[in-house]
Amino acid sequence: MMKQVVAGALAVIAGCAAPTPAPDARPAESARPSSAAAAPPASATAAASALASSGAAPAPQPEDAGAPAPPLDGGARAADEAAATDGAPPPGAPPAASADTTAIATNKILPPLESEELTARARALFDAIVKNEPALADPFWFPKEPFIPLKDVKDPGKYWDNLHAAYANDVKAMHRKRKSWEGARFVGFEVGSRPKWVPPGDEVNKIGYYRSFHGKLKYELDGKPASVDVHTIISWQGRWYITHLGDFKKR
Questions:
Q1: Which of 10, 49, 135, 146 has CA atoms 20 to 30 A from the CA of 211?
Q2: Domain membership flag for residue 26
């Protein structure tokens, strides 16, 4: 019995000490490279060889559909737009009109012989004469701002000041022509002589205008019609303005 136990134990010990067999070193079939994938197709190889032997150039690749096409006008439109952005006129554009040219063109407008605004300014002149307050007549007087570029004299601003002072004196002189203006009623204003276009260069002016002589400031006093002579009116931007109320030649 003892011998059998010892023999069994020795057999177990011998089995545990036996070497473990080495794993199979051959690669798995799935890991081997496929001959079909590694080598190019025979048809492709033959086509490439034929193309190389013939010397023909390869076909061009298609362009990117997203790339912008070159401008058909050679970039002229883009140049014009850039010039407009910079404030410069595009090539071939007409030159811009000067301030003097624009003033001449816009001033060649014959003002109406009758209008509400003309009547209102004439009424202001009448009130100035009646009240002996020359400042009330300023709306009918030619303004200084356009007078300076209009007149071709050494100092147009000073010339305007002199004329305006004479205008104020004329208002006072006309007030003195009557002992009393009580009851005087304004009737209206009538343009005098037929308006005439005075071109640049005449009457020492740089800008042309329409001119009319001897307009009538009409009124009634004691039921009788009367009038005040307005020596000279000229046009500016579609309106009439006085430049001489009295006869300036006698001064």
A1: 135
A2: no
